[in-house]
Specification:
Length: 379
Amino acid sequence: MSDFIIRTEELSDEQIKELYVPTQNDKKILEQLKSQSPVLLVGSRGVGKSFLSKISQINLMENFEKEKIFPVFITFRSVSLIQSGNSKDSYVENMKEMVTRQVKDSDLLKAMMINGQNFSILAYAAGGNPRLLLRSIEKIRSFNSNTINSVFREFYREEIWMEQSGLAEKYPGNSIFIDWGRKFVEEIVIPELKDKNDRFLSTNKSTTAYFWIHRNSPQAVKEALRILEYTGVIKQQALGIKATNAEIGTRYEVNIGCLLAFEANPQQKAMDIINNLSLGRMSEYGANSKAYNDLLSAVPKFSEPDMSECLKKQLSKSIKVLEITQWQKSKLVELNVKTIGELLLSTESKLMQAYYVGEVKARQMKNAAMAAVFEYLFG
């Protein structure tokens, strides 16, 4: 199967228009982006912030003669189902259309259509994040039950957590928060949610993927959760939610894929859990929860690192850590471009020295590689 394009920066305007699958929520966001009021669009990486910004720019540019508004798109690098307001059916159909517009393997496309429920499971597992969905599908050759279970074991149980822990190397000054956040969700929150779901399903009760943090919880805890939101492991679901004894706090949603990955047979239990989710069921962690103790005892040791040394360390890393296609990596290896720093210094003319790389492909490679470099360095 061909490599999926997972970054907006790698797409031309024509490709963006071709791949865009509009939803009702997208239309509301686009109207706000095109209005005169300032808008702060927030979300974890891969949910489509840059894509929607480019769509709004394209729309405004197409109406320039009439509206006389000249849009400029500048990047610093040169949803859950309930939040989106979509029904379950429309959500799955939107995600399916996004994928089918990129799938070039006809056999895989046929398998996806035949095994509709298994595709739905992967769509829900991605939690509204197109990038997670594309990356999970990129790893498979079929949509049978064994393959779906392997996605949960390899991607949602291992790879996504490796990325979370990998942030500690990129940002050593935040390593305490990063490591504790993983331990908190992976070893405390998810096992508790799984235990609840096992009991709820056995008694025909609603299931959960949610946990609640008291609004007076330590700031260090909130910072750790904010980093987890960036990687897509969790997302903030709602503020000002009442819990036991009318206490107020924030409700978070654990990524469905990460939650299902703890099941012995994710494919078998997935739809039972997904179809019975209830916002009213959640694990609660108070302002002085014992679960915070390890973090609070470690925070006094926190100190900012020498950022110049951090940058040198990142630039010396292998290009293998970048999220570019295997073909692009192989061409860089041909040119003896091995590190991030060497890639940043490479010109398009140098890239054209690789076999089968002309001017157009060189520009595409440079743009894709630069976007990946800056995303890796700066998130």
